[in-house]
# Entry
Amino acid sequence: MVTAESIEHSIKASLPCVWIRVEGDDGHHFSALIVSELFQGKNVVKQHQLVYQALGDRMREEIHALSLKTYTPEQWEAVRQSVD
# Structure
């Protein structure tokens, strides 16, 4: 069964992450928040494609649904400051 930890490990292995959190406990539906400098200058679609590439065949074979929130470090800092 797929776990949030295994998804997080796969993403970290391919993307340099400043921050990452993957959640989900039913083995099929997950959400991920990923902050990476690699997202700089890329629109949201391109950012998500980088994550899907990191997961490779797992997206087609193991993971039924993955909700993504992706940010550059600057965007993430702005989000965090707006919450505080």
